[in-house]
C-alpha cells in the first residue's frame, strides 16, 4: 500500500495525466469541431480576389489600397470598411463611382464595369468589414402588394422622402451645390439600396428604421405613381402645384397686363 501511495504522488504522474488529457481533448476537438474552412465557397473566394485586383487599379487611388480611405492631398475618398456590398453595387452600377471629376456630388452616368465586375468589387469591399448585403429580389419586388400597402408606402414616402425628392419623386435642389436626384426611371434594386445605405447626403434608412416591408411598399408606391398618365396636361416636371400655380399666375397676370395696355391705347385713340 505504501508503494502504491508513493507512485500516485510522484510529480511525473501529474504531468503525464495532464498530457494525456490534452491529447484526448485535441483528438475529440479534431473529430467533432466544424471545419476551419471559410464559409465562402471557392467561387466566392475567387470573386473576392477578382474584386481586389479591380479595386487596386480603379478605386485604391482615392479609397486606399485596403479601403482605409484617404483624407490628405487633392484626391480624397472616404473609408469603405463596413459600407457593405449594397453600397458598392449602388454606387458602381449607377456610374456614380468612379467619379468623372471632383465635385459636390457624384452624378449618374454609364457604368464603367460589367455586372460581374461590379459584383466582384462589392464582394471584395464586403470582405473588409460587415455591412449591408445586396438585397434579394423578393425584398424589392412590389408585385403582389395590396392597395392598402401601396397607400401606406405613399404615406411613408411623403413623411420621409418628399422633403428632398419632391412629393412625386422629381428631385430637388439642396444646399452647397448638391441635389436630390429624380427617382423616375430608377430601378427597384437601386431604390432599395439607396434607402438601405444612404448614399452621399441622403440619410440611412436601415432595416431597423424602415423595415424591408416598408421599403417594398415605398417602391410599390413610386412604381404606381410613375406609371400614371398626367391627366392635367403639362406636368411641368412633376414639381407640384406651387410651380404649376406660379406659371398660371404669371400667364394670367401677363394676359391682364396686355389687356390693360390695349384698353389704355384704345382710350387714347378715342380722344
TrEMBL record:
The cytochrome bc1 complex is composed of a cytochrome b (QcrB), the Rieske iron-sulfur protein (QcrA) and a diheme cytochrome c (QcrC) subunit. It catalyses: a quinol + 2 Fe(III)-[cytochrome c](out) = a quinone + 2 Fe(II)-[cytochrome c](out) + 2 H(+)(out). SUPFAM superfamilies: Cytochrome c. This is Cytochrome bc1 complex cytochrome c subunit. PANTHER family: CBB3-TYPE CYTOCHROME C OXIDASE SUBUNIT FIXP, CYTOCHROME BC1 COMPLEX CYTOCHROME C SUBUNIT. GO terms for cellular component: plasma membrane. Residues 46-129, 148-226 form the Cytochrome c domain. The gene is qcrC. The chain crosses the membrane at residues 246-265. It is a multi-pass membrane protein. Heme c 2 binds at residues 161, 164-165. It is found in: Cell membrane. It comes from the Bacteria.
Amino acid at each position: 500500500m505504501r508503494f502504491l501511495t508513493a507512485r500516485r504522488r510522484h510529480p511525473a504522474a501529474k504531468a503525464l495525466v495532464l498530457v494525456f488529457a490534452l491529447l484526448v481533448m485535441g483528438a475529440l476537438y479534431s473529430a467533432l469541431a466544424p471545419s476551419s474552412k471559410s464559409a465562402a465557397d471557392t467561387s466566392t473566394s475567387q470573386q473576392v480576389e477578382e474584386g481586389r485586383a479591380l479595386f487596386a487599379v480603379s478605386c485604391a487611388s482615392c479609397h486606399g489600397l485596403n479601403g482605409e480611405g484617404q483624407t490628405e492631398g487633392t484626391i480624397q475618398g472616404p473609408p469603405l470598411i463596413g459600407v457593405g456590398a449594397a453600397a458598392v453595387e449602388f454606387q458602381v452600377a449607377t456610374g456614380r463611382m468612379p467619379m468623372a471629376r471632383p465635385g459636390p456630388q457624384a452624378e449618374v452616368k454609364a457604368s464603367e464595369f460589367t455586372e460581374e465586375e461590379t459584383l466582384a468589387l462589392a464582394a471584395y469591399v464586403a470582405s473588409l468589414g460587415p455591412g449591408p448585403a445586396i438585397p434579394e429580389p423578393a425584398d424589392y419586388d412590389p408585385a403582389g402588394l395590396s392597395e392598402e400597402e401601396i397607400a401606406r408606402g405613399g404615406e411613408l414616402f411623403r413623411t420621409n422622402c418628399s422633403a428632398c425628392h419632391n412629393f412625386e419623386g422629381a428631385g430637388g435642389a439642396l444646399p452647397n451645390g448638391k441635389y436630390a436626384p429624380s427617382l423616375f426611371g430608377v430601378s427597384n434594386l437601386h431604390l432599395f439600396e439607396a434607402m438601405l445605405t444612404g448614399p452621399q447626403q441622403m440619410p440611412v434608412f436601415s432595416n431597423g428604421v424602415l423595415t424591408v416591408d416598408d421599403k417594398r411598399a415605398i417602391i410599390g408606391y413610386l412604381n404606381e405613381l410613375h406609371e400614371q398618365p398626367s391627366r392635367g396636361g403639362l406636368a411641368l416636371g412633376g414639381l407640384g402645384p406651387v410651380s404649376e400655380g406660379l406659371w398660371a399666375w404669371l400667364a394670367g397676370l401677363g394676359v391682364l397686363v396686355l389687356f390693360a395696355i390695349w384698353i389704355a391705347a384704345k382710350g387714347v385713340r378715342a380722344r
